[in-house]
Amino acid sequence: TELTEKLEEVVMIWTKQIRQVLVESEQIRREADDVGPSAELEHWKSRMSSFNSLLDEIKSSRVKKIISILQAARSKTLKQWKELDGSITIAANEAKDNVRYLYTLDKFFGPLANASPVMMEHIPSLINTVCMIYCTSPYYNTSERLTSLFLKITNQMINTCKTYLCEG
């Protein structure tokens, strides 16, 4: 029972740390007013990397051994652990899915940033791709996510126009 108590303390520390990561990941992002759409992709790539690292750690043999010992001891800490494990898996899947969908927009980001203000040729395809993401993505189809993306696309268009005016 002394070993079980020590392992439960370890799991409780992990639980607290994982909860903190989840809370921080859900906080509203503060970004500069002129940030472009590439920042959205970078955000999700970073988040995917963080959650995948966390999942790798959770699935490590060391953690599995501790969890199996606590399962054998019928520890009550495992209920919280399983909930957090599920939450981390969902967050990792969301990030991975969002990166996959945002990569379909990546081909538009360069031309949008480097085009002249007459960038109309790129807009219909870009909007169609965003519409496809909205219709098919299980995670990226919220007004919050799309508003953030459209804001960044608009910022990029404005920056492109400013650059063109300053150079011309």
From TrEMBL:
<dbReference type="GO" id="GO:0007018">
    <property type="term" value="P:microtubule-based movement"/>
</dbReference>
<dbReference type="GO" id="GO:0051959">
    <property type="term" value="F:dynein light intermediate chain binding"/>
</dbReference>
<feature type="domain" description="Dynein heavy chain tail">
    <location>
        <begin position="5"/>
        <end position="166"/>
    </location>
</feature>
<dbReference type="InterPro" id="IPR026983">
    <property type="entry name" value="DHC"/>
</dbReference>
<protein>
    <submittedName>
        <fullName>DYH5 protein</fullName>
    </submittedName>
</protein>
<dbReference type="Pfam" id="PF08385">
    <property type="entry name" value="DHC_N1"/>
</dbReference>
<dbReference type="GO" id="GO:0045505">
    <property type="term" value="F:dynein intermediate chain binding"/>
</dbReference>
<dbReference type="InterPro" id="IPR013594">
    <property type="entry name" value="Dynein_heavy_tail"/>
</dbReference>
<dbReference type="GO" id="GO:0005858">
    <property type="term" value="C:axonemal dynein complex"/>
</dbReference>
